[in-house]
Amino acid sequence: MTSPCPCGHTTANSAKPAKTRPLPFSACCGPFLEKNIPAPNAEALMRSRYSAFVLERADYLLASWHASTRPAALDFAPGAKWLGLDVYSHRVLDADHAEVEFVARCREAGRATRLHERSRFVRESGRWWYVDGDQF
Q1: What is the number of other CB atoms lying within 10 angstroms of the CB of residue 25?
Q2: How far is 11 from 19, CA to CA, in rounded Å?
Q3: Which of 57, 92, 101, 102 is the most exposed place for a label (fewest CB within 10 A)?
Q4: Are 15 and 99 in contact (CB under 8 A)?
């Protein structure tokens, strides 16, 4: 997939620092979703999970959810269109715990909605897992 990554992550243009361009899926969330490569940090895992929602990849969402809080199955809202992701903060609490605060925007049945969450992540055996989050 050479199109821009659904998570919206960008890279700065070194020739023009104020100019950014979207990262392609293959250089951003793609390796996590397609090749089972572990995300290097909680923010990368959160971004990849947003991309998995956009792509309706329940397999990846469940596989990246910590076993202690993982649901048995996931359903996607029919016709939902994800509109964008804004990451507000990535806070490392210690070597194995982190939080990511974000807003994800979506349109369902013609109505715009937003999910504002502070998600909690844990690293076990070198791999980051989504645990849970507080919605605002």
Answers
A1: 21
A2: 9
A3: 92
A4: no
